[in-house]
Design goal:
Layout lengths: L1 E7 L5 E5 L3 E7 L5 E7 L9 H7 L5 E7 L2 E13 L5 E7 L2 H4 L15 E7 L1 H13 L11 E2 L8 E6 L6 H10 L5 E8 L5 E8 L3 E7 L7 E9 L6 E5 L9 E4 L13 E5 L6 H15 L3 E9 H4 L7 E7 L8 E13 L3 E6 L1
Parallel strand pairs: 9-12, 13-19, 15-17
Antiparallel strand pairs: 1-2, 1-5, 3-4, 3-20, 4-7, 5-6, 6-7, 8-10, 11-12, 14-18, 15-16, 18-21, 19-20, 20-21
Helix pairs in contact: 3-4
């Protein structure tokens, strides 16, 4: 049920159906996913002309799409090509489209003005995120800038933001600032086939949702291939200083002190976070609070594995997943699950699911 295409990154057009001999990929809305795809170029059944492969393997200009039942689950822009002369194996390493936004500023080199500002006024946080995506993926008349990202309707509100060009912040940094705001929206650039059959990315902005799935891990035929619970305190914080604009004694500093976790005592883990583009005290305090709320407790990630045919293609990032546990040697009885934040796959029939 897996199928694969290589598409033109700029237009989304399907250039060639391809047949990898192996692959691994991971997609997430909490970071930039990546993949690795191997092709046996000397396979008689799938052989293509040399010039065709050279074109299909062009970094950045080509995108590998992995589909289940012809529904895209992962789309990665080729970043690295590695070919073995004696094996005839071509390996393509790919990254999701947000990696482009992690490189681009919200302006081109000719547009830079040391006094320039990118500003959004009178929008909701969703509307601000939409505008940032517009800066990062649309440029009328530019064939090298515009990408087939579908933006939602604009949304007015009471929020405003401005960014000075001289700070040279990337589009991804602006998106993360909005996501990290207390009550800020999530963002998932979901690959899909558009009305013409070409690849496009749907901008899902807000609280991501999707169909719900559940399993009873105590049943004799529970349908799970993997069930792991990871508790990680590497990023846990007890307080945050948000370091803003300025230097030395004139530097702006916001803070959010530790409020305590009932029944838990840990060493002090106060830390600093840099927000050098912020000079407003309230915004710095809000940034510190949002950071503390995100890392006040150890992260818990539930990883499940299931047959792709049991969950795809209806399951999407944002779906609610949970599994029942009872009588385990370590885990308390109850449901373990939450929001699907990441998926991983290969050529097997099993799909990996990361739940936070």
């Amino acid at each position: 049920m897996w199928s694969h295409w290589i598409c033109d990154t700029f237009t989304g057009s399907r250039m060639q159906q391809v047949f990898p001999s192996g692959e691994n990929w991971r997609t997430s809305f909490t970071g930039v996913g990546s993949g690795s795809h191997q092709f046996q170029l000397r396979d008689e059944e799938t052989r293509l002309p040399r010039a065709t492969w050279q074109d299909l393997a062009t970094p950045w200009a080509r995108t590998v799409v992995s589909c289940w039942a012809d529904v895209p689950q992962y789309a990665g822009l080729i970043r690295t090509q590695k070919y073995g002369r004696f094996t005839g194996v071509l390996e393509l390493s790919t990254v999701e489209i947000r990696q482009v936004l992690a490189i681009r500023m919200p302006f081109t080199v000719p547009e830079y003005d040391p006094n320039g500002v990118r500003a959004v006024i009178g929008k909701s946080l969703r509307g601000i995120m939409r505008q940032v995506l517009d800066w990062g993926t649309k440029r009328p008349g530019s064939n090298d800038w515009s990408l087939p990202v579908v933006l939602p309707a604009d949304e007015s509100g009471s929020q405003s933001r401005s960014w000075q060009m001289y700070n040279f912040e990337t589009v991804e940094q602006l998106l993360q600032q909005i996501e990290g705001t207390n009550g800020g929206p999530d963002l998932h650039l979901r690959p899909r086939w558009g009305a013409t059959g070409a690849l496009e990315w749907e901008s899902r902005i807000g609280t991501l949702t999707g169909p719900a799935f559940e399993w009873d891990s105590t049943a004799s035929e529970h349908g799970l291939a993997d069930f792991t619970v990871t508790k990680d305190a590497a990023k846990q914080l007890t307080g945050v200083f948000s370091i803003g604009a300025g230097s030395e004694a004139d530097m702006k500093v916001g803070q959010s002190p530790f409020t305590g976790i009932p029944g838990t005592r840990i060493p002090n883990l106060d830390a600093t976070r840099s927000f050098k583009t912020l000079a407003d005290d309230a915004q710095l305090d809000a940034a510190a609070l949002a950071e503390l709320q995100a890392f006040r407790e150890p992260s818990r990630v539930v990883t499940l594995g299931a047959l792709a045919s049991d969950v795809l293609p209806s399951m999407v990032l944002g779906s609610t997943l949970r599994a029942w546990v009872e009588g385990d040697e370590f885990l308390d009885d109850g449901w373990y699950g939450g929001t699907l934040v990441g998926m991983s796959g290969n050529l097997s029939e099993t799909i990996g699911m990361e739940i936070a």
